[in-house]
Known about the structure:
The chain is α+β, with helices and mostly antiparallel strands. It folds into two domains: 2-214, Endonuclease III, domain 1, CATH 1.10.340; 225-348, Nucleoside Triphosphate Pyrophosphohydrolase. It contains 15 helices and nine strands. It has helices at residues 2-14, 26-35, 41-54, 58-63, 66-73, 80-95, 104-107, 115-126, 135-144, 154-167, 173-186, 205-208, 269-272, 276-282, 335-343, and strands at residues 225-236, 240-241, 244-245, 256-257, 260-263, 288-291, 297-300, 304-315, 323-324. Strands 1, 5, 6, 7 and 8 form a five-stranded mixed sheet that branches. Strands 2-9 form a two-stranded antiparallel ribbon. It has a two-stranded antiparallel sheet with strand order 3-4. Strand 7 (297-300) and strand 8 (304-315) form a beta hairpin. Helix 1 packs across helix 11 (173-186), helix 2 packs antiparallel against helix 8 and helix 9 packs across helix 11. The chain is globular. The relative contact order is 0.11.
Amino acid sequence: MLFHKTLVNWYLENKRDLPWRKTANPYHVWLSEIMLQQTRIAQGLPYYYKFIKEFPDVFQLAEAPQEKVLKLWQGLGYYSRARNLHATAQFVASELNGKFPENYKGLLKLKGVGDYTASAIASICYNEPVPVVDGNVYRVLARYFDIETPVNSSAGIKEFKLLATELLDCENPGTYNQAVMEFGALQCKPQLPLCESCPLSGSCLALKNGKISQLPIKLKKAKVRKRYFNYLVFISEENTTLIEQRLGKGIWEGLYQFPLVETTTRLKEEEILLEEEFISFAGKDPKQITLYNSSPIIHKLSHQHIFTNFWLIKKNKLPENSVSIENLSEYPVPVLIANFIQDYNFSEY
């Protein structure tokens, strides 16, 4: 079909030089695909190099402590990907003797591997004729065929998957899948697509109908939740502080943070002093308390915005489980806290 031949020819001339495109090693391809979920290549590439250097194969990743994996992942976001990555490495190493499943259905059973990732690995590494459908593919197909079905609806997911299957180059599925994704990333971009130089412009229905800026269509996202975090940054005369590990299934599971008091609104100093959780951490009469940031630091996640205050609390001594401030950098923490640690000069307090 002209469509897939055009895309493959474009790809061979325009593709970016990326390390995971030089191999069919499923460990390398899997690692890159997990890292690039909801992440730009420019952001993910340094992390890919770090992981390959630190963990050259799935056995070494499996043997690493989870905290080390989370620390290397720090700043990349969506930390459930890192936890799933580690769990899958342990499963592949211990249960499959280090060998990844060699087909779509087998790959789909791995933790953290969904339809898109399983299709990408199966087609690139094993030449299995299964189509990939990611954001770039949705955009290319929606525009080229002028499809108004919302891409994030049940009907849209089915429709685009069926269409992608029909368009697939079954003889060379790995190259074609990479071609259509790369085309969406570089040519048929979300904003300011390069329609004038597009090899498909002559038959693109959205271009013909003046609907490029309207497609693809997405259903509105759920309302963003607002949360108010008060981090208690204790500093003792012995230059130690307190940190705790986040447990449960919420955001940043397994990462470390300063003791946290979450409230329903932003609090003033006289209000934070009355919070029961604050008293349990700091006591009724902390030696000195100062608000580090004059206005809340807003950390935006996909479905929630976190309004953050860092409260500096001076204490003569802290419990035995306190940690040296010099060693804070060894712990995996959310980027919100990593930025605070980097910006704040503890020695001047």
